[in-house]
Automatic annotation (TrEMBL):
SUPFAM superfamilies: PRTase-like. PANTHER family: DNA UTILIZATION PROTEIN YHGH (PTHR47505:SF1). Coiled coil: none annotated. It comes from the Bacteria. The lineage of its organism: Bacteria, Pseudomonadati, Bacteroidota, Sphingobacteriia, Sphingobacteriales. Residues 139-230 form the Phosphoribosyltransferase domain. This is ComF family protein. CDD domains: PRTases_typeI.
Length: 232
């Protein structure tokens, strides 16, 4: 009876304060939390965490000696996932990243290769961009993962010195050369042989995440795996 009343009250509230699905924009029903049932069913999950030899890992092979790499969702043009990423990055809905992070964290916890991860590091935004947007969506994604995996999120290690990676007129190899110009490491004393999960929102060229990984490798003794919310 109580839950019936709650549902009724929830539906009543949603008339005045409609909550929208983060993927398709439809009005959510009371029992739907962040995305609607239809989107949840149709989202293109990669299942990359289930096997090491996946396309995200292959894309990063040879550029940094990573342990594992995976992406949660495929992002195609004009798709549910593209809308979701837009909501997260540009429409002030970072909690969607945390929600998906938590779902992914639950899945990663079930895979042996990810079970010895010590902490999560989100790829940081440059302070100017952080000020403008007000939040780092990768932090929210990482927070969800960390909560599900019951490990800490560390934002005090990797620092971003440059807002963007300049790729114009540079070959693929050259792009990774001056990585220490983009990111910097701090607070790395007394850390040995830790396994880090480096997380970002979308994997495109991979240049940013590789740059971040290389700086971490340069700074201390660690193993690094990578997880992104989506891959373009
Ligand atoms: Zn939907």
């Amino acid at each position: 009876m109580k839950s019936e009343l709650n549902k009724l009250f929830g539906d009543f509230l949603s008339i005045f304060f409609p909550r929208e699905c983060g993927c398709c924009g439809c009005v959510l029903k009371y029992q739907e939390k962040f995305i609607c049932i239809a989107c949840d069913f149709h989202l293109p999950y990669t299942n990359y965490h289930e096997y090491s030899d996946n396309d995200t890992a292959r894309q990063l092979w040879g550029k940094a000696p990573l342990e594992e790499a995976c992406s949660f969702l495929f992002m195609q043009k004009d798709s549910r996932v593209e809308r979701l990423i837009y909501q997260i990055k540009y429409n002030n809905q970072p909690f969607l990243a945390e929600y998906f992070g938590y779902q992914y964290g639950l899945k990663l916890s079930e895979v042996k290769a990810y079970q010895d991860i010590d902490f999560v590091i989100p790829v940081p935004l440059h302070s100017s961009k952080l000020r403008k947007r007000g939040y780092n969506q990768s932090t929210y994604f990482g927070r969800g993962i960390a909560r599900a995996m019951e490990i800490p999120l560390r934002e005090d290690i990797l620092v971003r010195k440059k807002a963007t990676i300049s790729q114009t007129g540079k070959g693929r190899l050259e792009r990774y050369e001056n990585v220490s110009d983009i990111f910097d490491c701090q607070n790395t004393v007394l850390m040995d042989n830790v396994h880090i999960l480096l997380v970002d929102d979308v994997l495109t060229t991979g240049a940013t995440i590789i740059s971040a990984a290389l700086v971490l490798f340069e700074s201390f003794d660690c193993r690094i795996s990578v997880a992104t919310l989506a891959r373009a």
